Structures are given as C-alpha cells and as structure tokens.
Amino acid sequence: MVSNKKRRTIFVKMALTNVVILLLSLFFVGYISHKKSKNAMENNLEITSLQILKQADKGFSEYLNKMTQELTILNKNVDIKDLEDPAQDYKKTQQYVQYALKSIKESLSGIDNVYYSAEHGAVIIDSEITDESKLSFRDKDWYKKAKENTDKFIYSEPYVDAVTGNNVLTISKAVTGYNGEFIGVVGIDINLSEIETYIHDVSLLDYGYIVIADNNGNIVINNEKNKTFGENLSGFEFWDALKNSNQENTKWTNNGELTFVLQTIDEKTGWRIVGFVEEKEITEHLSSIKNTIFIAVAVFFTLGIIASLILTKTITEQIKKINIGVRKIATGNLRERIQVSSKDEIQELAENLNTALDSISGLLKEIDSTSEEMYDSASGIASMSEETHAAVSEVANAINEVSNGSTDQATAISNVTNTVDGLSNRIDDVDKNINNILNLSEVTDKLSDDGLKVLNLLIEKSVVTKQNTQESSSNVKEMTDSIKNINQISDVISGITEQTNLLALNASIEAARAGELGKGFAVVAEEIRKLAEESKDSTDKIKSIIKEVNQKSIRFVDSMEETVNILNEQDESINNTKNIFIEIAESIEPLVEAIRYISNLTDKMNNDKENVKKEIDNISVISQDVASVSEEVTASAEEVTATMDELTEYADKLDGIAENLKEKLNKFEL
C-alpha cells in the first residue's frame, strides 16, 4: 500500500509539475505573442500614420508649389517690369498687370487676392488699382522679407484679412527690373479654409485626425475631431518633445488613455503637420488576436496535459519495474531479471543491474559447487579420522599385549635366575619354560608383524587424510578467491550506485537552477537517487553475507593448516612407532634363535650352567628393553589417539562450516 501511494505521489507530482510548466510556458508564449503583436501593430500604426502625414504634407506642398509657380510667372511678367519704364503707357500697363493677376485668381481655387505692390507707386489688385496713398503693403513683414530675400518665396504667418475677414496665408516674391534692381513684390493671399478642407479630407486611420500648427504651437488648421487641445498645443507635455528634438513620433497619456502623437514638418512654411491616433485603433485588433491566442493556448494546453500524463505514466511504470526487481534481489532472488521498455537512462540502469546480477549469480554458483566439494571432503576426512582412530586403538591394544607379554617374560626370567642353582634338578621345568618362551617369542614376532601392518595402514590413511585436507584447503582458497571476485563486483555495483546517486544529485542541482522548468526532472532525479540507495543497500547486504562466508572460509583454512601440521606430527610419530616395531622384530629374532639354541642345548645345560646363566641375564636385559619399548609405543599410541581425536574434532568443525556455508547459499535463488 505504501509503495502504491509513493507511486501515485510521484505520478501526481510529475503530472502537476509538467502541467504547471506547460501552463507557464503557454502563458509566457501567449504573453510574448500578445506583446510582440502589440508592438508590431504600434510600429505599423506609427509607420502608416507617418506615411499618411507625409502624403498630406506632399499634397500641401504641391498646392503651395502651384502658387509659387504663378508667382514665378508674375516675377517674370514684362508688363510689371514695364511699369517702371516711363516710355510705356502706365495706365494701360496697369490694366495688363491687373488682367494677369485676375487670370491667376480665376485659374486656382482658394485664392482670396492676387496683387502687386510697387516700391514706388500704386498697389495693383486683381479687382482694383489703388493709389499708394490709400493702400500700401510696404510696412508688412512679408513685404520686407521678400525685399531682403529677392531670390526666395516668403510665407507669412496666418492672419485675418482686413478686407474679407478670412484667415489667410500670404506667399510673396520680390520682383526685379530689367537691370536686376528691386521694383516691388507680388503676392497671393490663400484662404486657409481651402487648406482646412484638404486636411479634413485626409483620413488618419479610423479614429485619428490631423492638425497643422506653427512653431509656437498655435493651431493653424484645426480639425473638428479635436476635442482636447483647443487652439494651441504648446501647453501639453508632448509639444516639447516634438519641437525641441524634431522627432517624428511620441506618446502621450491623457486620463489613462494612450495617444500616439506624430508629426512631419513642411519644408516651405515650417509648419508642423501633427497627427493624433488613439490606442483604440489597435486594441480592437488586439482583442481579436488575444482571442486567437487564448484558443491556441487552450488547445495546446489540453494536448500538453495528455502528452504529459502519457509520458509521466511511462516513466513511473519503468521505475516501478526496477523497484520490484531490486526488492526481489534484496530478498535473495537472483533468478529474476529487470525488464524495461524505455530507450533511455532507465534502460541503461536496468541493463547494468542485470549484468551485475549475472556476475553475482555465476560466482555464487561456483561457490555453491565449491561448498559441495568441501562438504564431501569434510565428510571424507571425518570418516577417515574415525577409521584411523579405530586402527590406532587396535595398535594400542596390540602394544598393550606386547607389554604384558614382556612383563611376563621378565618375571619368568627372574624366576629362572633365582632357580639357576637348582637347574640340574629342574631340567624338565627349564625345557617347559623354554618352550613357553619360544611360543611367546613367536607370538611377539607375530604381534610385531601385525603392528607393522597396522602402522602401514595408518600411514596410508594419514597420506589420504593429508591429501584430502590439502585438497579441501585448495578448494577453500579457490572459494576465497571467488569471494574476493564477488567483493570486487559488489564494489563495482556500489560504485555504480554511488555514481548514479551523484548524477541524480547533479540533476537535482541543475533542475533547481532551472527553477520551475526543472521541477519535473528534479522529481525523476530524486526517484533515481532513491533507487540507487536501495541498490546500494542490497549490495551492502550481499557484501555482508559474503564477508561472513569469507571469515568462515579463513577459519576453515586455518583449521586445515593446523590439521596438516597435526598430520605431519602424526606421520613423524607413526614413523617412530614403525621404527620401534622394526627394532622389536629385530630383537625378537635373536631371542627366538637363542631360545631354540637353548632348546637344542638342553642336554648340555648341566655342563654349561654358567653359559646358561649368562644367556638368561642377556634375556633379562632384552626383556627389560622390550618392556621399555612397549611402554614407549603405548605412550605414542595414546598420543596418536589424542591426535586423531583432535583431527576428528576439526573434521566435525569443517563439516559444520561447510553445512553453514551451504545454508547461507540456499538463501539465494540462482
């Protein structure tokens, strides 16, 4: 249940993290798209508006060019020049000039007056000729500037015409005589209502409008859409930016509403054609774009959630498989292999674990086989030890009999010595005793042969025991080497888990640096770290078991070495015993020969008492030697018995160690 909760928690965390990241990403993309669309529309609005303003300025300039062209014609009019020629008919020439002025007025719209003001003489207007005493323009600014700049067209400031009451703009040009001298100024009064009509006909997008202002901010041509600025722009904060830097556009906020302010400067008049465009020109279009972005975000968010859930489920399923496999390993099941279907680091981790399991399983199988051989060897050693113990017991019994016989022999010889003085009277008894001695000697000789046979058998058993012990020691050493290999592989697994843990830690650090975008990967990295820790715990358990096996193997090797030493000592004791038996046999043979010789010389015993006495003394010495040797052989036999008991004990310990090793290996399912 806990595992399921953990998996659900991982799934929910990853899914929520991916949803949050996806939502933030889509929100960010939507915001950036909206922002860029707004900036693009603002730039497009400014560019389009400036183009419209420049187009309006171009039309305005073309209109003024028509006026200046007419002034150029008047500047070169010969009738005007002839007014200064006394030889010409002055009145008639004035009429010619007036006709020319009238023709210009009639040919162009928007002209209130066309006139010529002479430096010395009358003022000729398209409608009348006035004496200079009644009307003179020589005190007007436009007249003075034209006189000072004879090669330029002069544009006056707008003013109210005294005659018509209309707002007019005067364009003037100096006139020179045939000799290039200044003779007067021609001028055209343009009714500003004509320009106003032209400006009003210019459409600045849907809600924008255009006004024309002079350099002081006074609105020369106003617009009926202007409900904000009145007749002057200089009091508004955007005016300084337009006037001082001559920049083409700026922004102005009025009562929370953004207005784009654009301008272009007419080269002839110096007037500023100013356009005002409200932000709602783009908000309506942005609203449509915003709806489109919202729909796109909703669609991609839905698709992203579906893809995120599928991806998260895939990852958690693979982690679940690895987790189940590692738990089986921890319980000792080394037959199962971890199977994952992902083609990424998770599959690589599973393959590494499977490779490690294959190596461990192979080594444990070798250890199991070795432990079986060690168990069989230990059983063989125990069995041979029991057989050897039985053989040594038989030898001890035989030696005891020899010892008893030697004692009896010594007693008999003592009796013979005591009765040697009455030997002549007891020849029959001597003969009988000699026969008994002969029999005992033959028995002793036979026992010596039996003892040698037993010792030879004991030597053979000792050799077999020594070989088995050495073979067991070799097997245990091979098993120890295998355990070392397992330790090395376990160290490799520990290294892999530690490296995996380190990589997971680095991934968590990088995910933390990535912020919200890295939370999903941080969760995966944390689960990989936990998996690595579980792998490390399982490896540590395996190493602990192997360490215990290794320690017991070391104790077994020590026991084998001690057993070998004991067997070597036993071999030495057996060889000594064998030598003693050989000496006994060699001693018995002269005894038998002597007894036979005595038997043959029984008839001569009376004559050779002294010789018999000496021989009896020799026999007594030999009997004592035999008794002494028998005691030594008995002691050696007891030592051999004790050694075999100890060997049996070690064999039992070896058998227990092998059984314990087998039980430990049975914990693993190979």
TrEMBL record:
Q: Which residues cross the membrane?
A: 12-32, 293-311
Organism, by scientific name, is: Clostridium butyricum
From its record, what is one biological process in GO terms? chemotaxis
Q: How does it sit in the membrane?
A: Multi-pass membrane protein
Q: Which Gene3D superfamilies does this entry report, sorted A to Z?
A: 6.10.340.10, Methyl-accepting chemotaxis protein, PAS domain
**What does the UniProt keyword field contain?**
Cell membrane, Chemotaxis, Membrane, Transducer, Transmembrane, Transmembrane helix
Record-linked Pfam families: dCache_1 (PF02743), HAMP (PF00672), MCPsignal (PF00015)
| Name recorded for this polypeptide | Methyl-accepting chemotaxis protein
A cellular component term, taken from the record's GO annotations: plasma membrane
Concerning its family, UniProt says: Belongs to the methyl-accepting chemotaxis (MCP) protein family.
Where in the cell? Cell membrane
| Methyl-accepting transducer domain ranges (all copies) | 384-641
Question: Residue limits of the HAMP domain?
Answer: 313-365
